[in-house]
């Protein structure tokens, strides 16, 4: 079985689990999820690797119970440091060193989820459970293990073990959200990837406008793939009666880079803030730096000195977490640090400029410009993220600005990038659907809006989306749309 | 120190940290009510309160306090009525 949510066998697997889940008595349902999570892990990859997440849970379990029993604060701290070192050590060893060890599925995600729990127990804001199997479910929970969301035990841990009665509305709404996720991944993301791959694999033949276009396509490819995966993960969880934290909140509508990071991969940002940024700022070194800065540079600059320094470490960590390569450390790390620092330093200038031009701070046009600017800056980061190396990214950026070829927009060359005219129309229409739904979503949940409509409207909307996805979705080899439809009979 | 007195002191600290003389904090005041009170400023604020009132918040308290009222509860617990 493939690990991806969009594979046919995964859907069969999930359906089976859903039925089993509600066949069991409510009190035992968490056990079904644990069994399913273990089965998923064993079936989708190298089964033996399940020992890694199990070991991580075991170490966390032991560490948490030790910390609860020990009164001496130094010893407690020692336990915390030991558990942290082991968990992070394994992550770094598997992900970043060339030891030739196979990395287990989801190691980047479950490590953060489990480690956050351990740290909360250390800070006495979460309690360890008695039953190790319950912790194993929390660490291995199959909808979240592949790509998050990163969970926070003190907020969403306990619900896993509570009895969830069958609730028709929750199950329906969960399934609806899953369909939306499939639409994002199969219809949009897969189409975008064709254009992206053509240009990124041969950027010398596609300079100038091609690079802008392919990078924007990559932005949507990544967003629809990642957030679509979240829709499926959160939708599946909803069908089990579980509420997982949201990971995206229409990030491309952000007006600033800081806002973007509060709306893109939210659970990672929250984790980094709580377990890296805050503790860092509270260390003696940073407190001293803050005092020194305030005395020497004044209140405002002194504060900037400490926050910018701590943010540098934070962004380095975020980039490093995405992958050890410099293209990640820059593209989804330090570049964004640079944006935020420059933005903060320039803000007084911008303010003055706007006052001089008599542009009201809340004007629509200005908001739109800010959204476009933020999207552009984010896209520069994506060039690093997607290119093979930092060197390739730099060459591509130079060719993006150095070659002026807007003629390709009208002469039909764009239809040779992997999407012909019809395919391109489907892509654009699908992106428009995504755009409208995202706009509506800002004010109220679109699923609830649809829910309040009359039955025929509801019926038509959901079935239209379902068939649109089935007919126009891209599936991997051996998995055609036709096959999919026929297997339904 | 009384609850009222702590609120008075907090008012001054908040005004100083956020550079806004119009701030008046109440029991239910949260980060949403004060424009610049984001995650960056939160730690600065906590540090300023600690220094001014001679208290120490644990990391658990720093990340879980929901409003100014809860902050005052913790302060009162540490310095007594």
Overview of the molecule:
The complex is a heterodimer of chains A (489) and B (81). Chain A is mostly helical and 489 residues long. Chain A folds into three domains: 8-158, no CATH class; 176-248 and 402-489, no CATH class; 251-386, no CATH class. Chain A contains 21 helices and no strands. The longest helix of chain A is centred in the middle third of the chain and has 33 residues, at 168-200. Chain A is globular. Chain A starts with 7 loop residues before the first helix and ends with a helix. The longest helix of chain B is centred in the first third of the chain and has 16 residues, at 3-18. With 81 residues, chain B is mostly helical. Chain B has four helices and no strands. Chain B has one domain (3-79): ACP-like (Non-ribosomal Peptide Synthetase Peptidyl Carrier Protein, Chain A).
Features:
heterodimer, A: 489 residues, mainly alpha, 72% helix, globular, B: 81 residues, Non-ribosomal Peptide Synthetase Peptidyl Carrier Protein, Chain A, 0% strand
The number of E-state strands of chain B comes to 0
Helix count of chain B equals: 4
Overall strand count of chain A: 0
Q: Structural class of the helices, strands and pairings of chain A?
A: mainly alpha
Query: In terms of quaternary structure, what is this?
Result: heterodimer
- Specify which chain pair forms the largest interface: A-B, 16 and 13 residues
Q: Give the full name of the CATH homologous superfamily of chain B.
A: ACP-like
Radius of gyration of chain A, rounded? 24 Å
**Helix proportion of chain A:** over 70%
Taking pLDDT < 50 over at least 5 consecutive residues as the criterion, the unreliable ranges of chain A are 480-489
Instruction: Please summarize the sheet with the most strands of chain B.
Output: none
Q: For this structure, what is the CATH class of chain B?
A: Mainly Alpha
| Total number of distinct structural domains of chain A | 3
Order of helix and strand elements from N to C terminus of chain A: HHHHHHHHHHHHHHHHHHHHH
Assign the structural class of chain B, choosing from mainly alpha, mainly beta, alpha/beta, alpha+beta, or little secondary structure: mainly alpha
N-to-C terminal Cα separation of chain A, in Å? 21 Å
């Amino acid at each position: 079985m493939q690990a991806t949510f969009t594979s046919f066998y995964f859907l069969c697997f999930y359906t089976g689990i859903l039925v089993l889940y509600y066949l069991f008595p409510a009190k035992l349902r968490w056990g079904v999820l644990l069994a399913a999570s273990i089965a998923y892990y064993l079936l989708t990859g190298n089964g033996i690797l399940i020992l890694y997440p199990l070991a991580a849970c075991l170490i966390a379990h032991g560490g948490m119970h030790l910390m609860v029993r020990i009164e001496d604060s130094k010893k407690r701290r020692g336990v915390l440091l030991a558990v942290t070192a082991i968990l992070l050590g394994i992550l770094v060893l598997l992900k970043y060193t060339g030891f030739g060890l196979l990395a287990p599925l989801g190691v980047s995600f479950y490590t953060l989820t489990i480690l956050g729990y351990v740290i909360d127990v250390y800070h006495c804001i979460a309690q360890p459970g008695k039953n190790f199997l319950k912790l194993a479910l929390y660490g291995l929970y199959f909808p979240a293990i592949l790509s998050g969301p990163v969970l926070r035990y003190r907020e969403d841990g306990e619900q896993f073990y509570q009895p969830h009665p069958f609730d028709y509305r929750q199950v329906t709404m969960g399934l609806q959200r899953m369909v939306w996720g499939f639409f994002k991944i199969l219809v949009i993301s897969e189409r975008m990837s064709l254009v992206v791959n053509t240009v990124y694999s041969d950027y010398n033949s596609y300079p100038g406008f091609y690079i802008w276009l392919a990078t924007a396509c990559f932005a949507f490819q990544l967003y629809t793939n990642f957030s679509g995966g979240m829709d499926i993960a959160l939708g599946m969880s909803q069908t089990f009666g579980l509420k997982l934290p949201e990971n995206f909140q229409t990030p491309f509508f952000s007006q600033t880079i800081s806002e973007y990071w509060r709306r893109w991969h939210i659970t990672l940002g929250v984790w980094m803030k709580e377990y890296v940024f805050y503790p860092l700022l509270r260390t003696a070194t940073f407190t001293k730096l803050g005092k020194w800065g305030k005395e020497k540079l004044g209140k405002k600059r002194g504060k900037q000195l400490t926050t910018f320094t701590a943010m540098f470490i934070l962004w380095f960590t975020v980039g490093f977490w995405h992958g050890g390569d410099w293209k990640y450390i820059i593209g989804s790390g330090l570049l964004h640090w640079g944006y935020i620092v420059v933005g903060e330093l320039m803000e007084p200038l911008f303010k003055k400029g706007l006052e001089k031009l008599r542009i009201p701070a809340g004007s629509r046009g200005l908001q739109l410009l800010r959204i476009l600017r933020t999207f552009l800056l984010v896209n520069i980061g994506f060039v690093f993220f997607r290119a093979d190396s930092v060197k390739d990214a730099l060459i591509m950026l130079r060719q993006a600005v150095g070659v002026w070829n807007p003629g390709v927009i009208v002469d039909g060359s764009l239809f040779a990038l992997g999407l012909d005219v019809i395919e391109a129309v489907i892509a654009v229409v699908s992106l428009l659907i995504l755009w409208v739904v995202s706009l509506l979503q800002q004010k109220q949940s679109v699923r609830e809006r649809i829910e309040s409509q009359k039955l025929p409207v509801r019926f038509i909307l959901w079935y239209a989306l379902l068939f649109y996805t089935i007919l126009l979705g891209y599936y991997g080899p051996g998995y055609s749309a036709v096959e999919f439809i026929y297997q339904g009979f | 120190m009384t609850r009222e007195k702590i609120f008075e002191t907090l008012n001054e600290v908040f005004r100083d940290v956020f550079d806004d003389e119009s701030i008046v904090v109440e029991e239910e005041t949260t980060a949403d009510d004060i424009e610049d009170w984001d995650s960056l400023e939160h730690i600065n604020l906590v540090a300023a309160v600690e220094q001014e009132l001679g208290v120490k918040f644990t990391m658990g308290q720093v990340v879980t306090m929901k409003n100014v009222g809860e902050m005052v509860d913790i302060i009162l617990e540490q310095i007594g009525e």
